[in-house]
Amino acid sequence: MKFHPILFKNAAFLLLSISISLLFAELAIAENIPHNLERPTKVKGLKPLDLKIAQASPVQVTRVQINSSNSKLEIILEALEGRSLQIDTSKFRIEGNNLVADIPNAVLAIPDMQEFSTANPTAEISKINITQLDVSTLRVNVFGNGKPPTQEVSLKTQGQPFSLNRDDEPEEEITVTGTRTARPTRLTPGSIAVIDADKIDQNLSQDLRDVFRYEPNISVGNNRRYGLQDINIRGLGGNRVLILNDGIRLPTQFSFGTSSLGRDYVDIESLQRVEVVRGPASALYGSDALGGVVSFRTIDPEDLLKKRPDQSVVTSLSTNVETSDRSFTNTAAIAFRDGNFEGLLGYTRRDGAEVRVPTGNEFVDSRSNARNNWLGKLVYRIDATSKIGFAAEIFRNRDNFKVAPITVAGLQSPTGFRGQDEALDNNVSRDRFSISYDFNDPNSTSFLTAAKAQIYYQNSNVEEIRTQDFVRTGAGVDRRRLRNLTNTFSDRLLGGELEFQSRFKIDEILNTLTYGIDISSTRNERVRNGTENRFNATGANILTTNVVGADNFPVKDFPDSDTFRLGVYVQNAIDFSDTFTLIAGLRFDSYQLKTKIDEIYLRNSPSASAADFNDSAISPSLGFVWQTSPEWTLTGRYAKGFRTPLYSEINSGFTNLTSPTFRYQTLSNPNLKPETSDTFEIGVRANYPQFNFNLTGFYNSYSNFIESFASVGFATVNGIPNVNLFQTQNVAKASTYGIELGSEYRFDPANDGFSLIAALGLTVGENQTTNQPLETVDPIKLVTGLRYRAPQSIWGADLIATFAGQPRLASNRPANAYTPQGYTVVDLTGFYKITPQLTLNMGIFNLFNSQYFLYSDVRPLITAPAPTDLARFAQTGISLRAGLTFVF
User: Fold this and answer.
1) What is the C-alpha separation between 682 and 739, in angstroms, rounded?
2) CB crowding 781-809: b at 16 or more within 10 Å, else e
3) What does the DSSP 8-state code read for residue 555?
4) How far apart are CA 763 and CA 620, in angstroms?
5) Cβ–Cβ contacts within 10 Å for residue 340, how many?
6) Does 168 score more than 70 pLDDT?
7) How large is the average pLDDT for residues 483-498?
8) CA 471 to CA 409: how far, in whole Å?
9) Under a CB-based contact definition with an 8 Å cutoff, are residues 565 and 286 in contact?
10) Beta pairing partners, 676
11) Model pLDDT for residues 395-452, shown as the tens digit of each residue
12) pLDDT attached to residue 370
């Protein structure tokens, strides 16, 4: 399944040509509008730009029909000539006891009626009004009897329903991360993925890798010892992707020697939604958003209370089981409302073991995992538009790892010894606390329409406790060496943010201005300690030493570091018309690193130096959204990205002069430059009652890629000649280009029945310094399937096949180097709502028990022959998952 770059370049050119053709065709149509029809008016003050933008004529609503029952009410809107209304669910809201929906680009055209009104359609609803809010906006107002209606109320057009008061199955995906304002994903310039709690449950996701299982151009790396590592977007991972949890930056990935500390600090059972911005987002989020942004949002009290709107206390209980790792996950959450107060308390416990593979389980290392997560939130609603919130979360994960007996003899050992046992106890913790204020009044007549403020503190720690047991293979007094090693890593973060939004008009052009400031300070520390006990032939301890290999414990891999970040940003969404929006953003970031050298840092390398670091960056972005018709949208954007070098990249002090074959020293580098990128994207999106489609093409150019520990020559150190020198440097340029596609075709205009789904991700990467493929890029991935939803979504099922190709690898690898192969895997998932409160989710994964390997797992193996224990890197064989959720 290799993909030839020439074919891709032709396809990318074709996509660009089609998009430009659509643009000129639409402009030509606009120029030929008959003179007796209204033409778009010219905008004062914009003569140099002189844009001629096609303005779609308003859709005429010619008939309104009300269908009601005890549990449901439908407002059916029929349009002239069967045209589709431009429904934007972000304009749906609850005002007091009323459900309100504004429909843009629409006029009421019912004969002899200036407005539609009906009284007492159900016991819960006193009146329904449909009026003309302005010349091109309809307002639907559903009046509740003393409280908002709890029965389902929906708008229906072209057979497609849009709920006004239920979020069980959101008809329109809304993103906040993409532009820091709520917008439908199809009306954002960038490529955004939104995964809500329902998708997480229905896909029976057990971890971060499962969350992104079916997302194109997104993967999650894994380390067999240390677990999930990072999130890779379009070929960039590690610390080049910014990960946020409720707006709070998660700790960076850290690797040194055999240790590889990842970024798995989030319990997915606590999440309400996940949003992913593919490509740079530095104009809004600053450094580390070079490859993209992953934003996790935990559940709020109102998210749970909405599930039972007639109750002031709602409880959710769920349990999940997975056969491949014999894991159980149990979650409990309770939310309450008392007057203006809302609160939530949630707890998750997960227990599991090692994953079994189709063949070669003798190579699989044994492990046990235990995870606890507590989440608490308290909200006080000052009034209908503002609230104060407090949140606390305590995350604990313990992972016990033991090397399989068949591979333990091959461990790296002291000269003259071989391994006979190794175990690792890895403990990860994260505590965070925040206080926030939110104000949102879209109907505000003042300059300020929204604002939020947050102050937070987060304390994250990793403790590795490793034991290694070696036995001598030849002559020597000490016959056994037992090492006890303890490594710690800490990341303490204190920060705050202010964000404002203003809506105003300039010459009748609506502007939505978003602006704010982020400020934070992070403290990072890394200490390694340990001892080695040596035993003679009788088992007596003859020596205990803190000199273990090249280490004279305790040591620090980098000096204690304080990182200060300050970012100021502004973004303006300019609605030149109902169909064309230009979104421009600009951000200034200042980055300061201060270090402290102490005796422990100098212990292993007395000549080590550490440098402070200061830098700043300006990141612009420019995007547009053009609805060429109510169904079709053309999008595009340019974005500048950057990533400042981290504490661990600028400063590293380690000297190994004891090895008989390889002596080396690492050097600090205060002259590192930030990595930067320029990204161009263009996309076409369609949204019909039975069909939706999105296609995005992108090109990314990266400069000053940072390579950790690049070779910089030799030197004499402490009188020892020919010591290898290594230093982290800016050495590479790279580019990536590709496409992302997603679509669904429903055989029925309603949300039920059968549908076909497909998603494709293809990225081609080039290391322009070596003129070789960029090997961090995942191979082409196609996800396709058949979906069924019963009426009212009582039950449903998905049969999904995932096809992955063979990666593009460098041509200068050794001739016998391992080359990962493509694979096909099939999953079957389904759900059944036993009652409105009780839901069963089930799935069979890897239906045909295929032995396959994810490229993100085996990428470290591609420069050498396939290891004998390759099977332990395989994915699980056929497995069964089941989950039960009870909301009452």
Assistant:
1) 10
2) bbbbbebebeebeebbbbbbebbbbbbbb
3) B
4) 24
5) 12
6) no
7) 96
8) 10
9) yes
10) 642, 703
11) 999 999 999 999 888 888 888 899 999 999 999 999 999 999 999 887 778 889 999 9
12) 96
Categorize the per-residue pLDDT at 166 as very low, low, confident or very high, splitting at 50, 70 and 90: low
Q: Which two tokens stand for residue 383?
A: 């009034």
Most confident of 8-12, 17-21, 846-850: 846-850
User: Residue 51 pLDDT more than 60?
Assistant: no
What the block records as the tokens of 762 is: 């293809």
Name the pLDDT band for 172 (thresholds 50, 70, 90): low
Inter-CA distances, 69 with 84, 121, 128, 152, 619, Å: 26, 9, 15, 10, 54
Provide mean pLDDT across the span 802-825: 93
**Whats the size of the chain, residue-wise?**
888
Task: Round to whole Å and give the CA distance between 672 and 645.
Answer: 7
Q: Burial-class residue 742 by CB neighbours within 10 Å (0-12, 13-18, 19+).
A: buried
Which residues have a Cβ under 8 Å from the Cβ of 133 and sit 6 or more positions away? 102, 139
Show the beta-strand stretches assigned E in 536-656: 541-545, 547-548, 551-552, 560-575, 580-596, 613-626, 632-643, 654-656
Q: Which residues pair with 358 in a beta bridge?
A: none
Which pairing describes strands 632-643 and 541-545: parallel, antiparallel, or unpaired? Answer: unpaired
H or E segment at 221?
Answer: strand 218-223
- Whether pLDDT at 18 is above 60: no
Amino acid, res. 327: S
Look up the pTM and report it. 0.82
Q: Please give the average per-residue pLDDT across 336-352, as a whole number.
A: 95
Distance CA 139, CA 141 (A): 6
DSSP summary character for residue 172: S
Ranges 34-48, 324-338, 373-387: which has the least confidence? 34-48
pLDDT of residue 528: 93
What would the two tokens of residue 535 be? Answer: 């035993």
Q: What is the pLDDT of residues 359-389, one digit of tens each?
A: 989 999 999 999 999 999 999 999 888 999 9
* Residue 412: alpha-carbon gap to chain centroid: 36
CA distance 615 to 646: 12
Cβ 150 vs Cβ 309: under 8 Å? yes
Average pLDDT for 288-309:
92
pLDDT of the residue at 212: 95
Residue 358 · residue 850 · CB < 8 Å: yes
Paired tokens of 226? 């240390």
Q: What is the full DSSP assignment across 354-402?
A: PPP-SS-GGGSPEEEEEEEEEEEEEEEE-SSSEEEEEEEEEEEEEEEEE
174 touches 94 (CB < 8 A): no
Three-state DSSP state, 816: coil
Question: The tokens of 561 are what?
Answer: 């570091």
Q: Pairing state of beta strands 125-134 and 116-122?
A: antiparallel
Cβ pair 275, 247 in contact under 8 A: no
Q: How many CA atoms lie within 13 A of 35 on its CB side?
A: 0
Cα 864–chain centre separation? 32
Question: Which residues contact residue 727 at a Cβ distance below 8 angstroms, ignoring those fewer than 6 apart?
Answer: 666, 667, 668, 669, 709, 710, 712
In 3D space, the residue among 587, 592, 585, 584 whose CA is nearest the CA of residue 567 turns out to be 587
Task: Give the span between the Cα atoms of 429 and 266, in whole angstroms.
Answer: 10
For the chain, the first-to-last Cα distance in angstroms comes to 49
**pLDDT at residue 477 above 70?**
yes
Peptide bond into 554 cis (omega under 30): yes
Which pLDDT score is estimated for 413?
86
CA distance 282 to 621: 9
What does the pLDDT average to over 38-55? 36
What are the Cα distances from residue 347, in Å, to 271, 319, 374, 456? 12, 12, 5, 21
DSSP 8-state secondary structure symbol assigned to residue 253 = P
CA–CA distances in Å: residue 282 to residues 290, 547, 617, 621, 638: 7, 45, 10, 9, 12
Cα–Cα dist 377/297, whole Å? 13
